[in-house]
TrEMBL record:
Pfam families: GerE (PF00196), Response_reg (PF00072). Keywords: DNA-binding, Phosphoprotein, Transcription, Transcription regulation. InterPro entries: CheY-like_superfamily (IPR011006), NreC/VraR/RcsB-like_REC (IPR058245), Sig_transdc_resp-reg_C-effctor (IPR016032), Sig_transdc_resp-reg_receiver (IPR001789), Tscrpt_reg_LuxR_C (IPR000792), WalR-like (IPR039420). The keyword Transcription applies. Residues 150-215 form the HTH luxR-type domain. The keyword tRNA-binding does not apply. It comes from Streptomyces vulcanius. The modification 4-aspartylphosphate is found at residue 55. PANTHER family: TRANSCRIPTIONAL REGULATORY PROTEIN NARL-RELATED, TWO-COMPONENT RESPONSE REGULATOR. This is Response regulator. Residues 4-121 form the Response regulatory domain.
Length: 220
């Protein structure tokens, strides 16, 4: 089955460009478009896309609020990939904090766009880990977030789970973590699932942000 994508951007040319790039791939299908975040929830419920590629800045409802709304109201929500003009943007970090699974620059090359959609859909790697680290260093609380510290403390991660979280924050995939720890990929998947469950995180991105903001991992 192809990865299905909903495009949300107030610029028709951006939507047209993303559609052209993605639909050139045999394993990706664009199932719909919207011009504002306010239209996302009904379209997600109707079309059930695997991934929503959504502009972070829109006039009526921006990508941050739309992300929160989708995750709050839709059962089995899609992965959310926020699309932005500027990489070092507080809006992007706030979207990630709100629950977005990754971000993509509008000037990205076609291969990078395709890679981002596939990676977010699979959920087994952190998209652009170095950029997430830079955003966390600039806009995160760097250990000063009490809620994140409390979350990590309550999680009571085992030594191996803590090690897996550190490697996740470095951007390693499940296969790369397995090779590093000399264990099977299925074992790593079990550890990752345990980390997410204990932290109450919906995906790797949210777990890594908690790790940065609690001070468990230094983003610098």
């Amino acid at each position: 089955m192809p990865v299905t994508v909903l495009l949300v951007d107030d610029e028709p040319l951006v939507r047209a460009g993303l559609r052209a790039v993605l639909e050139a791939q045999p394993d990706i299908e664009v199932v719909g478009e919207a011009a504002d975040g306010a239209a996302v929830i009904p379209l997600v419920r109707q079309l059930r896309p695997d991934v929503v590629a959504m502009d972070v800045r829109m006039p009526l409802m921006d990508g941050i609020e739309a992300t929160r709304a989708v995750l709050r109201t839709v059962d089995g929500p899609p992965k959310i990939l926020v699309v932005t003009t500027f990489e070092n943007d507080e809006y992007v970090y706030e979207a990630l904090r709100a629950g977005a699974d990754g971000f993509l620059l509008k000037r990205a090359r076609p291969a990078e766009i395709v890679h981002a959609v596939r990676l977010v859909a699979e959920g087994e790697s952190l998209l652009f880990p170095a950029s997430v680290r830079r955003l966390a260093a600039e806009y995160g609380d760097a250990g000063g977030n009490r809620a994140a510290r409390d979350t990590l403390e309550r999680a009571r991660l085992t030594e191996r789970e803590a090690e897996v979280l550190r490697l996740m924050a470095r951007g390693l995939s499940n296969a790369e973590i397995a090779a590093r720890l000399v264990v099977g990929t299925e074992t790593v998947k079990s550890h990752v699932s345990a980390v997410l469950a204990k932290l109450g995180a919906r995906d790797r991105t949210q777990a890594v942000i908690t790790a940065y903001e609690s001070g468990f991992v230094a983003p610098g």
